Amino acid sequence: MKHVPDATADRKFESDNTVDRAGVDGLLSELDEYAVEQALQLRESREGEEIEITALTVGPEKALDAVRKALQMGVDKGVHVTDEGIAGSDYLGTSLVLAKAIEKLGAEKPVDIVFFGMASTDASGGVVPAMVAERLNLPQVTLAALVQSQGDQVRIKRDGDTATEVIGATLPIVLSVTDQSGEARYPSFKGIMAAKKKPVETYSLADLDVDPSEVGAGAATTSVEDTAARPPRTAGEIVTDEDGSGAEALAGFLASKKFI
């Protein structure tokens, strides 16, 4: 799960053209909330089984807020990977850190499903789930609009523009879900209070045996060369209809902009 700058806030870039994640309010990426919800629903559908859900995030100190939100929703424990060497990582670097953290968790208790949102609401790349699956040597089922658990198998429905696919996979797998998979629940007061007592582990690059040279801005294969502020909004054009010519004027305006 990813802690992202609030879309309604005044988002900025640092002097090195990386996103300012410290000087702006942040929150759990909305698309990742759907992944949390699907993990919780899967556990609820398999009542009586011992299923533990862990929320994993990578980022600076503020990123811990994303884990806290998941704990309040009902997740059992959290893991926060934070290290100055990670700053500026691209998708490849981020996927490496996530995969190593999942491997470390798997050494303690087998990991059956790695849930992702379909993309993050800041970068909107949508490629990290596939990269993590490749690094973990696991099959991936992505863009699920519906998730159903059937023993050691998971069946998903994927809705496209022209068709719907139904895909089955055997655990363990990497799975990403879309915003059509079901509204995420709001944390209850009981959940908020219970979250304060749930365990949260902190990992560094050294804990994951990741060489700092493999991640961060220095190892990134892509970079932002330049940024510019969004231009201010200009006043709109008002079409009046004092003499009955308004419809013609409106149609002419739309045609000039090639809208019709």
Q: Give the SSE order as H and E letters.
A: EEHEHEHEHEEEEEHEH
Principal-axes shape call: globular
- What's the total count of β strands? 11
- Cα gyration radius (Å): 22 Å
Mean pLDDT across all amino acids: 90
Please summarize the sheet with the most strands. 3 strands, parallel
Q: Residue share in helices?
A: 25-40%
Strand content: 15-25%
Taking pLDDT < 50 over at least 5 consecutive residues as the criterion, the unreliable ranges are none
By secondary-structure content and strand pairing, the structural class works out as alpha/beta
In short:
The chain is α/β, with parallel strands linked by helices.
Describe the structure.
The radius of gyration is 22 Å and the shape is globular. It has helices at 30-45, 64-73, 91-108, 128-136, 189-195, 246-256; strands at residues 3-5, 26-28, 54-58, 77-81, 113-117, 140-144, 146-150, 153-159, 164-170, 173-177, 200-203. 27% of the residues lie in helices and 21% in strands. It has a 3-stranded parallel β-sheet, sandwiched between helices. A 3-stranded parallel β-sheet has the order 5-10-6. With 260 residues, the protein is α/β, with parallel strands linked by helices. Helix 2 (64-73) packs across helix 5 (189-195) and helix 3 (91-108) crosses helix 4.
